[in-house]
Amino acid sequence: MLEPTYQADVVVVGAGIAGLSAARRLTSAGVTTVVLEAAHEVGGRMATETVDGFRLDRVGRLLSTAYPELRRAPGLDGLVLRPFDPGVLLHSDGRHHRAGVQQRGARSARGALHAVRALAGAPRPGGGPRRPVAVPGRQVSVPRSRSGAPLGTAVDQARLGAALTRLAGTPVERLLSRPELPAAEALVARGLPARTIDGFLRPLLTALLCDPDLTTSSRCADLALHAFASGRLCLPEGGAEALPQQLARTLPPGTVHTGVRVTSVSTTSVTTAEHGEFRCGAVLVATGARAAAELLPGLRVPGFHPVTVVHHTTDEPPATGASLLLDADRGGPVAHTAVVSRVDPSRAPAGRTLVTSTVLGVPAPGVDTAVRMHLARLYGVPTARWETLAVRHTAEAVPAMRPPHDLRRSVRLLAGLYVCGDHRDTGSVQGALHSAHRAAAAVLADLGVSGSLHSVEPVPTARAA
Predict the structure, then answer these.
(1) Is residue 460 situated within a structural domain?
(2) Omega of the bond prior to 306 within 30 degrees of 0, cis?
């Protein structure tokens, strides 16, 4: 039982990955920190449940080995990332089309360079075309398909390969300085071939952004493509919960308290339903957007992309390896699917197969039946005998990032009161961790603690939503 008069330098409200990451940075700087979580476990939306020995993610977000915060966030050294097969597997016209790894610059001269500059945002120079510089070892998707599906001619494929190669080497600052449009409009405005957009970029971005209509800010879409081209899509070994649990294990004993509901906050205290008031030097609200707005009236609540994850097991696993399978034809409810036990064997008992599929938007009644029918077409095998392990719907799974979208929303509301989470940055694991980085830096600066590793925002005179 916690003491009602407990003192701490900082109280963090919420034990998702943003709150835990911020707490890790604060405790590393010598700041006494308490994390209060209303649920009975850490992780928030990065939850994993165990059913008959299977590890089933609730939301199942895709990660990239190129996310900077996965490398530099303290406490994540022990996290094991399991990569998918390079690129993706596209389903079109009843066939699978493998996306490979391009390690040499494309040689399609003017047409390829035009696509490079269209996707990477570089102006076309007045002189002759330059050959793009390849980025060795980076993931660049160039589907090796016959003419007509899903990307058409070899010239179309060369243009896409050159564009993604160049994109991998484009500084993030340049991407963020580009004009902002909805992602769907931006792809068309850049002069990319319709076949390239519909056959590859649209299904890929749909999977990365959880936004089937591509209403997301083009800047956020560019960041997602940049991460795809620069690294490998991956999953945490042991389930999504491995990331928050790894962060929690690196905190001093007694830092995290679950089953504690915070009912109000101020710059110097938090009030809980179970233990009364906690006095402190600063409060960091690290919950989801809606819960944060309940504690901080006036805080903006974004729209959300609903996600439904369907888990199946079968004794006859599809022969797709450890690939992420996308439907270029958009012929059913499944946005992307994978035999995740091939990606991460720890997610299924020995000798068993786990197939995880993601449905975006509000699911229709009988979603499992519709998913089974779609999976039969995608994998080319009967699915009637597949066993359904779980169907999990999350209405507010991913914050929407429609333009105009501020990728660096203020994390300091007032000196002593802060907020972080994927709703303050990009709606991704990278965004949640980066907002925690910014918030911890602001707290340390206001407390006068040296060693802040991030630029600090000015103190506002009134609360910014």
Answers:
(1) no
(2) no
